[in-house]
Design brief:
Number of domains: 2
CATH class of the largest domain: Mainly Beta
Radius of gyration: 32 Å
Number of helices: 15
Shape: elongated
Distance between the termini: 91 Å
CATH topology of the largest domain: Jelly Rolls
Number of strands: 17
CATH architecture of the largest domain: Sandwich
Helix content: 40-55%
Largest sheet: 5 strands, antiparallel
CATH superfamily of the largest domain: Jelly Rolls
Length: about 425
């Protein structure tokens, strides 16, 4: 990713007075944020504080070995690293990138020294902490009292506020974590919003078609959190770095026109994207994606039927669970070779029977993604083909042995052994004299 961001696209940095911003600039390091990247783990002291400009980060809480639950979302409205702001050495939550983008980071020790000096940076960081606490409290109340439909509207609007345009690259699984509900519930709620013409969702890509309709359907929690954030952050004068973050009226008009043109182009590309998604989902061939450990990440309808799994399951199983024990070592070697990313790999294995089908023989063709972190596979049922080959081989063996079935007529008075009408006799000269 080519880095082209301006630090003042982050609202906290933009609100700093020009002299404070200038002294901080040399300590800021530009970084790319990749979707799914962990910025800091729970129980670990953060090494950096991040100021997102185009990326979005989710704060997640995991109780024991359970699935993490979403706490809050941070983007260009704040910073990631509240434990550093509050002087703590560790935290009970983790920070994971929700939407890829860019950010600026500063070493935790460096910014801690600057906080000790007081001034506007510390004041802004504490205001952001207060706004974040409001979001946390409101999210807890929202998840307990409001329907999932309204929670989903609220979460979508909060995420869109942190991104340019009207699109999100997000899965139902991630939304379910952030709302603390099951994936099937999110799928049902998203289906209602799509049927109402508010959103369009296709394989991890969500487009908001009617934002006003979404705002009307959302609960009041969205406006409460938004107003509190604006109240706390819009306190600095329009000078220095903040002034640079706000262009002239003519420039804003030009940017609005450019965004409008971009949205139009994005709408035009959605139709072929949706057609491709339908082709993938309803293809007669089984397609699926595995991670480096062999867990199923994604699969189409044909693959789900073939493996006997439901795509709505909270956690999809390991593919190895469907492989016969005698073929398991070969499959593991095949997966490891595929993830090396050198070329397309092919293997043939047997799948265990399910309650809907017998044991199958399948051929797998697979390649890895560019990062060599995922294995994308096609499964082709070759059971009938292999059965036909075995039958042909048996017939060939019988013909080559020189034996066949034919009727044998016994002479009058002769005593036949077994069935007098059919006897197995060799080809060639008769054995009888």
């Amino acid at each position: 990713m080519t880095f082209s961001d301006d630090p003042t696209r982050n609202r906290l940095l933009a609100a700093l007075p020009a002299d404070r911003y200038g002294r901080l600039l040399s300590d800021l390091e530009p970084v790319d944020l990749h979707r799914g990247q962990t910025l800091y783990e729970h129980g670990v002291r953060p090494e950096h504080v991040y100021f997102p400009t185009t990326g979005v980060v989710s704060l997640l809480f995991a109780a024991g070995k359970g699935v993490p639950t979403g706490l809050a979302t941070i983007g260009n409205d704040g910073l990631v690293g509240i434990p550093v702001v509050l002087g703590g050495h560790a935290t009970s939550h983790c920070a994971v990138v929700q939407s890829a983008g860019q950010a600026y980071r500063i070493a935790a020790e460096t910014i801690r020294r600057k906080f000790e000096q007081g001034g506007e940076l510390r004041s802004l960081a504490l205001r952001h902490t207060q706004a974040l606490m409001t979001q946390l409290a409101q999210n807890v109340m929202c998840n307990r009292r409001h329907t999932v439909d309204r929670q989903l509207c609220r979460w979508l609007l909060q995420s869109l506020d942190l991104l340019p345009g009207n699109q999100l690259d997000v899965t139902h699984e991630l939304i379910a974590r952030m709302l603390g509900v099951r994936r099937e519930v999110v799928t049902e709620a998203a289906g209602k919003l799509q049927a109402a013409g508010l959103i369009r969702y296709s394989r991890g890509h969500l487009t908001v078609i009617d934002r006003q309709g979404l705002e009307a359907r959302a609960c009041e929690c969205y406006s409460v959190v938004k107003h509190e954030l604006e109240r706390l952050l819009v306190l600095a004068p329009e000078t220095g770095a903040r002034a640079r973050a706000h262009p002239s009226a003519a420039s804003r008009h030009a940017q609005a026109q450019a965004r409008s043109a971009l949205r139009g182009a994005q709408v035009e590309t959605d139709a072929p994207r949706d057609r491709y998604a339908d082709l993938y989902d309803f293809a007669p061939v089984a397609y699926l994606t595995l991670d480096a450990q062999g867990s199923i990440i994604d699969l189409n309808l044909a693959a789900a039927i073939l493996l006997g799994v439901r795509r709505s399951q909270r956690e999809l199983p390991h593919f190895a669970a469907a492989v016969t024990p005698e073929d398991l070592p070969a499959f593991k070697r095949f997966l490891a070779e595929t993830l090396k990313g050198t070329s397309k790999q092919t293997c043939e294995i047997s799948l265990l029977p399910t309650d809907r089908r017998p044991q199958l023989r399948v051929r797998i063709e697979a390649i890895s993604d560019e990062a060599c972190a995922e294995c994308r596979m096609v499964l082709i049922d070759v059971s009938a083909e292999r059965q036909a080959e075995r039958h042909s081989a048996l017939e060939a063996d019988r013909r080559s042995s020189g034996w066949t079935d034919r009727r044998r007529i016994h002479p009058p008075g002769a005593k036949a052994n077994g069935d007098p009408a059919r006897q197995i006799v060799p080809h060639g000269p008769s054995l009888e004299r």
